[in-house]
Amino acid sequence: MRYIALLRGINVGANGRIRMDALKQLMELAGFTRVVTYIQSGNVLFDSDLPESAARETIERALKDGAGITTTAVLRTADELHALVRDCPFPQDQINAAQAANLDGESFYVCLMNEEPDEKTLTKLAALEQGSDLFVLSGRTIYLLLTQSVRTSQLAIRLNRIFPNMTSRNWNTMMKLNELSLS
Predict the structure, then answer these.
(1) How confident is the model at residue 131 (pLDDT cuts 50, 70, 90)?
(2) CATH number where 96 lies
């Protein structure tokens, strides 16, 4: 099965630093095949016969044992990633408008989790004020459309507090990973 691993906090700040060639080698030593990394933020495409939870645990253990990095690996299959891109809840004109309003960088992100939120967490999400920023929850994915920097968006900050183990990628990265997963 073709998987995409999105590693939380890789090469962000002083901790979790690893070269992509070293990450690729760790993945191959862990038994994964057709390993490809994409940019420096911990995106890895690979093949494995392991179920998702076992592949995730193998990756997290390989990073801890091989590089001293404690992180969360969030996995999606190539089919799940394709569906995530296909089912984007925001129309292109809405994305363009958010980008035009946001002078501080990217506007469209995807936040990925390993588990769907429980009822208590769904209640917290329902209470969030979105303001000019928007989110749509779809299973283990949150689509996040911002009119300001992700670093200053109160919605983004609150989502990170509710989901401390989620990882986020901008839409362009998700599109590229989807493209790479097809090869």
Answers:
(1) confident
(2) 3.30.70
Residues 57 and 94 occupy one common structural domain: no
Whole-number Å distance between alpha carbons of 139 and 33: 28
pTM comes to 0.94
Instruction: Find, among 54, 55, 126, the residue nearest to 45 by Cα.
Output: 55
Number of residues in the chain: 183
Domain hosting residue 120, numbered range: 84-171
The stretch 17-27 carries a mean pLDDT of 94
Q: Per-residue pLDDT for 112 more than 80?
A: yes
Tell me: do 111 and 160 sit in the same domain: yes
CB 153 within 8 A of CB 131: no
Average pLDDT, the chain: 94
Dihedral (CA of 82, 181, 112, 96) sign: negative
Indicate if 68 and 91 belong to the same structural domain. Answer: no
Residue 82: which H helix or E strand, with range? helix 78-86
Residue 158 lies in a domain: yes
Q: Measuring CA to CA, which residue among 27, 12, 18, 13 is closest to residue 60?
A: 27
